[in-house]
Specification:
Blueprint: H1 3-13, E1 30-36, E2 46-51, E3 57-58, E4 68-75, E5 78-84, H2 88-91, E6 94-100, E7 105-111, E8 114-120, E9 123-128, E10 133-138, E11 148-149, E12 154-160, E13 163-168, E14 176-181, E15 184-189, E16 196-201, E17 206-211, E18 214-215, E19 222-224, E20 226-232, E21 238-244, E22 258-260, E23 266-271, E24 274-279, E25 284-290, E26 296-302, E27 307-312, E28 322-328, E29 334-342, E30 344-351
Antiparallel strand pairs: 1-2, 1-30, 2-3, 4-5, 5-6, 6-7, 8-9, 9-10, 10-11, 12-13, 13-14, 14-15, 16-17, 17-20, 18-19, 20-21, 22-23, 23-24, 24-25, 26-27, 27-28, 28-29
Length: 357
């Protein structure tokens, strides 16, 4: 798609007022958690907590978190923090910390090497990055089931239409998506795309697969273009495919490549120096929001304040120096910023109970 067309659809998008009716309408109820991956050899991942109403920032919001933050997933009013360690590849050990909205650690779940978490209600499924498996987990009781063998280096997990979809990214060289039903893989979707890393579900129970694509490490030449592929959640059939020729997608590290709004109406995707905005009702790209600056680790959108939050690594020393989150309106204009930890690469909003706030 040409830059001219991107500009035209961006102008059209600005005429639409965003309002997620399923989200709270009071800023005092909402906090944003930032998952800072940390430096690989130091196990110094951390969480930053940002209050939308006051702009108050709390670093190390959960003291002594440790490990390497792989992802954040909100389930109800709780935050699930997926952690690996510098020796996880050899030991096969990881952990999930469950955090209350106000930052209190509620419980811990021993897990293999967690990377993605999806499911419905209390029934969760966790992808184990270095074990090529997905583990069923009771998110309330914290009990885990027997791991299910899927494809190589699985990452994104999402439930749609009673089926669990798993992206077998294999660090960019994978092309398949596994389908789990009743505790077993019932289907493997072949040749979905290059690097199916982040999976999201919309209001129509479609599965959005954000595919990183591939590039040559030494030259930077794109060898497989990034794509956004929309699947029918009930059947796995491809409903839409948007290809970004000559471009890869996703965060600068193994971060959070995309975000779906609470009402399931919009999907935002990380691109090179930009955020792509999709309408899930038409499954079309509506804007390319330019957000130049330091490398992007994650993106999230809050309909409460109409703001786009973009996690960024330190431009000069991304894996050892503290990063930040920049705040933008939907034109891409920067309207704010707050400090974060090392390699911020996951974002999640949590709505507080009045007692917590």
């Amino acid at each position: 798609m040409s830059r001219l067309r991107f500009a035209l659809v961006a102008l059209l998008a600005l005429t639409v007022s965003a309002c997620d009716s399923s989200e709270p309408d009071d800023l005092s109820d909402v906090v944003l958690y930032v998952g800072n991956a940390g430096n690989f050899s130091d196990n110094n991942g951390s969480l930053t907590r940002y209050a939308l109403e006051t702009g108050t920032t709390t670093q190390d919001a959960v003291p002594n978190l440790g490990g390497l933050v792989q992802n954040l997933t909100r389930v109800g009013g709780e935050l699930f923090v997926l952690l690996n360690f510098d020796d996880s590849f050899s030991t096969g050990r990881g952990r999930i910390d469950v955090i209350g909205g106000a930052g209190q650690r509620l419980r811990q779940i021993d897990m293999r090497t967690p990377r993605g978490l999806g499911g419905a209600g209390a029934a969760g499924y966790v992808s184990n990055l270095y074990a090529d498996t997905v583990t069923p987990v009771d998110l309330v009781a914290g009990t885990v089931g027997t791991p299910i063998l899927v494809g190589a280096r699985p990452e994104g997990v999402v439930e749609a239409a009673g089926r669990v979809y798993v992206g077998n990214a294999n660090f960019g060289s994978g092309t398949t998506v596994s389908v789990i039903q009743n505790g077993a893989v019932t289907e493997t979707l072949a040749d979905v795309c290059a690097g199916p890393r982040t999976l999201l579900a919309d209001r129509e129970q479609e599965v959005w697969v954000i595919c990183t694509g591939q590039s040559d490490f030494s030259t930077g030449t794109v060898t497989a273009a990034g794509q956004v592929v929309v699947l029918d959640g009930a059947t796995g059939a491809v409903r839409q495919r948007v290809t970004f020729e000559g471009e890869t997608l996703g965060s600068f590290t193994q971060g959070q490549d995309g975000f779906v709004t609470d009402d399931g109406r919009q999907v935002f995707v990380v691109a090179d120096g930009a955020v792509l905005r999709f309408d899930t009702r038409s499954n079309t790209l509506t804007a390319r929001i330019e957000t130049p600056g330091a490398p992007i680790g994650a993106v999230a959108y809050s309909a409460v304040d109409g703001r786009l939050y973009v996690a960024r690594a330190d431009a000069g020393n991304p894996y050892a120096a503290d990063g930040a989150v920049t705040i933008h309106d939907l034109t891409g204009a920067k309207v704010g910023r707050f400090a974060a930890g090392i390699a911020p690469s996951a974002l999640a909003f949590v709505t507080l109970d009045r007692a917590q706030s």
